[in-house]
Structures
1.
Amino acid sequence: MLRAAPNVGKLYVLIKAKDKAAAMDRLKKEIIDEDLFSCLKDRYGKSYYDFMKSKLVPVLGNVSEENLGMDPDTITLLAEEIDVIINVAALTILNGRFEVLLNTNTKGPVWALNLAAKCKKLCLFLHVSTAYVAGKIEGVFFEKALIMGQTTPPTISAPLVDVDVEIKLASELDKSLHDDNEKAKKMKDLGMERAKFYGWRNTYEFTKAMGEMQISRMRGNVPVVIVRPSIIESSYSEPFPGWIQGNRMSEPVILSYGQGHLPGFVGEANTIMDIVPVDMVVNAILAAVAKHGITAKPELHVYNVTSSVENPVTVNDLWEHFHDHFTLSPLLDSRGKKIIVTLPELFTELHSFSAYLREKVVGKNGLQENLLAIDPKSHSQIQRECNKIVMRSTYLAEIYKDYVCGKVRFDSGNTKKLLENMSTQEKMDFGFDLGNINWRHYFVDLHIPSIRRRILKEASISSPVATSRF
């Protein structure tokens, strides 16, 4: 927004910190100094920091607390100033503690919605959810609101969910436990148990779904848009290809494969994955703000920012793209030799994958054949390393199994219409045409090189052979 719409008035950024000085410090380190804004640094030169500080206002608070953790004076100020609220706060730990995820993913949207209801000039409240509120359904998941007490979608047991009961249940267990370790374990177990009971795969999806239900139930006359992206990965083009902040879902798997630790993985070859570049998600959000913020009608609109219907990519496609990249630009082992990768074997059962992986890793390190020739101390160290690789890879497979074996596809008809209704110039400035993504180019030339630069700190990665194919 600062890059493409610099005439915006002010952007108030809710920041969790111990005091205002710490909030300002986080704003500077995590936003103003980020490479994301390098183009603005070039544009404004020495006046860059003044420009950013004139637009960005840190607000001390906490999305998981009542009134967003803000003091009354701040709430009064924001109620006078704000036109649009965009709630992007979420905890994405799939099997996190139930009460913690409830506070952020379920209660948090309510606190933000309450602020929206107080804003005198409010045009729109936009909530960023996730496409995976779909849960365990098979088939097409449509752009319809999740409403507590109604069969929407019919393949989720939504009528059985009472958000107030779940919040009370978590609160009562929380108060009854005093040992921190016991509380952490039981809260994680409770979240997964409740999620699976109602038809979701993990606590994250369940608490995000309940957050949507709360918005639907409590929005009143507030104009609301819910945006549901799927798996968000690095940017396709803006502000430059391959940008993203933090470590994302695919990165541990991709790097483990490139390092030669994943000769196999879980998944079904024809399962359609749903991946979206972060810049296209942002542009879809801004387009929705522009469209519905102007009318400010007290309606609820849902957009699935997803690719599985418009531009599907399968599990097999992904592994071929990963293989192509690391064949063209292999990683080096500790001795400086190129690591050779092969297309991984796919398993649908975790125990089969784990046994296969252990056999491959042990065989690769020669533990069985050379057991008698290896010094006992060296053998023990190699054995520990092998166990670590197997345990880490099995853990990754367990986390991602539901996503690489799932049967859901996300309808994105509303999102496609949103794009079609934009002018030619708007599409150039804020385009998000997921149908035009070349997935091989994206992974081989953009996404994986970005991972290597950010995480492995490699200076420059190029794939000249891959690029020449397009």
2.
Amino acid sequence: MNIVIIGNSAAMVGAVEAIRKYDKASNITVISDEKYHVYSRPLISYYLAGTVTEEKMAYRDKDFYQKNNVKTILGVKAVSIDENKKNVMLENGDSVSYDKLLIATGGKPFVPPISGLEKKNIQTFIKLDEAKSLKSNIRPNSKVVIVGGGLIGFKAAEGLHELGADVTIVELADRILSTILDNESASIVTKRLTNDGIKIKLNTTVDEIIGDDYVKEVHLKNGETLAADHLIFAIGVTPNTDVTKGTSIKVNRGILVDKHMKTNLDDVYAAGDVAEGYDMLIDSNRVVPIWPSAYMQGEIAGLNMVGVESTTKGTFPMNSIGYKDTYIITAGIINPPDSSYDVITKADYDKNSYKKIVLKGNNILGFILINDVDRAGIYTGLIRDRIDVSPFKDHLMKDDFGYVYFPKDLRKSKMLDLEVH
């Protein structure tokens, strides 16, 4: 059997490792427009800052492809799929035939249509080559404007600040990291950034790029003009579904998949940031672009492609990021949509710490932890396992909260889980 995987990141690794547990014989071909051995994308800001080398970014050992008998076609883009002939067409004119296909093309950066985009020194920040470009061009006091104060913009700002750049974040929302923080937690993180000299412009965005060949200034919707030697678009990513154009593969925001990670075509699967999979908290499909989820979805797809039935229990948003000595872990629903949710908070602004737990009924549905992150694993497990927290709800915010507060039967089952794993 010929198994083809388009994409060379976490979902690919999950699929390959799952396939090879049960199937040593099938041919596996991995196609990627990037030329690199599989690497950890979340580390590109650390590479930019110089705290991680390119070698240390490897997500698996250098012999990963050889050990798993994987043929790679790297540095060549897959441009289309012929679902009738079961071929993947490449930009160089070649084609690769498949019996089973996994689309794991990830996301692509969103860049709004703004006057002046053709100028030089404008880029996005989701790939290693983009980090390399910045690393070679940024000088101390280079003026860098980052459009977008979400996860990508936040990490870009950290890396650029380490290089000595003069960084300004421009964010359309009323706070940075608006999808994973509330106003209180965002204010703590904002203070930490601004203490380092990173400037933040909220409630506005860039509407014009000014310069000749190179960007020199950007004009904001609020009327301000900022000097800029480099402009980075970090507004976010959208599922990279380009390869499905002209096929009957169903796409909403991402490629629609069932709990087997299968598309509407029998032999075609999707996983990772390109897939619109099951979110257990909202009980419906949506794109959840996080690294651990991509691996797990790839694993489920890989098993099903070789006939080992497996279904996903679903995922939910989780993020663990930081800026120097400020640590942030969030999960699930953190800004409740209506009054049917309960919210518990605890803050110590002198220590720049903040905890928020969101509940509905007797279940935790989300949390925010800033600089007080020791219980993150327990809270995440309570969300994932849909545990009734009513017997120990009053203890959730205690500094020593842990299994000791669980009812005896629950505590015993959790301890058994720990022993098994």
